[in-house]
Amino acid sequence: MRIDILTLFPEMFVSPLNASILKRAQEKGKVVINLVNIRDYAGNKHGQVDDYPYGGGAGMVMKPDVVVRAIESVRGEDSWVIYMSPRGKTLKQDKVRELAERKHLVLLCGHYEGIDERALAFVDEEISIGDYVLTGGELPALVLVDAVVRLIPGVLGDEKSAEDESFSRGLLEYPHYTRPSIFRDQKVPEVLLSGHHENIRLWRKKQSLLVTLLKRPELLLQREYDEEEKKLLQEILFGREQ
C-alpha cells in the first residue's frame, strides 16, 4: 500500500511515522508513506496557501487551486482521496478494514477554517475521527494511518492479534493479564492458569460480551448473535449456566 499525506505541517508526522509498528511496516516494505507539503504547490513566491473568505468572517480558507494541484500531483488510477474533516462520517473499524484493502490512499489535511468548498469535487470521501474540532487534519490523519496500516497482512507479528481486538468482531476486547499471578491481592482468573484452551476461549468470549455490556451497551443492540454467544449472554444476564 502507498499512503500520501497532503499537509501544511509535514514535521508533525516525522516522529510518529518513525516509531513502533508504523516504522516496522515501512521497513518491511508493507507500506510506503509519503509526506507532501501543500505549500510546494502555492504557485507564488510568497507560498500563500490561504486567503480571506468571501462574505467575511473569522479565519482564513485554504485556496482551491493550491489544494487541487497538491492532490493531482499524487493522484493515480487506484487512488482514493480522503479529506480529514469534522463533517465526514465517523471512522469505524469496518471502514478501516475497507480502506486497508485499497492500494493507494491520499489523505488531505485541512487547516485554518478548512478548504475552499470547490476543492471537494476532487475528494472521494470525508472522514472524521469524532465530534470535536482539532487545529487541523494532521492528528486525525495519523489516527487513520495507524488504524489502517496495522491491518495490512504481514504488519503485525501475530495476525490473530488484529482479529481479537476491540471492535474487530463488534465487541470490546476481553481483559488481559500477565505476571505476576498475584498483584496487590488481585489474582489472575484461575481459568487462564488452567491450560484448558477451550475453557479459556469461552471465558474470553464471555468477558468480551460482559465488558461490552458494561461499557458500550449500544454495540449489542443490533448485533446478530450466534448460538454460543446467546448462551453466554444468558449466563451473564441470569447469573447461571443455561
Task: Characterise the protein shown here.
With 242 residues, the protein is α/β, with parallel strands linked by helices. It folds into two domains: 2-149, SPOUT methyltransferase, trefoil knot domain (Alpha/beta knot, 3-Layer(aba) Sandwich), CATH 3.40.1280; 166-238, tRNA(m1g37)methyltransferase, domain 2 (Trp Operon Repressor, Chain A). Helices cover 34% and strands 17% of the residues. It has helices spanning 14-17, 20-27, 64-72, 93-100, 138-149, 159-164, 190-193, 197-215, 227-238, and strands at 2-7, 32-37, 50-51, 61-62, 79-90, 104-109, 125-128, 182-183, 186-187. A hairpin with a 2-residue loop joins strand 8 and strand 9. Helix 4 (93-100) packs across helix 5 (138-149).
Give a brief rundown of this model.
This protein has 242 residues and is of the alpha/beta class.
List the helices and strands and how they pair.
Layout: E1 2-7, H1 14-17, H2 20-27, E2 32-37, E3 50-51, E4 61-62, H3 64-72, E5 79-90, H4 93-100, E6 104-109, E7 125-128, H5 138-149, H6 159-164, E8 182-183, E9 186-187, H7 190-193, H8 197-215, H9 227-238
Helix pairs in contact: 4-5, 8-9
GO biological process, one term: tRNA N1-guanine methylation
Enzyme class: transferase
Binding site for S-adenosyl-L-methionine: 110, 129-134
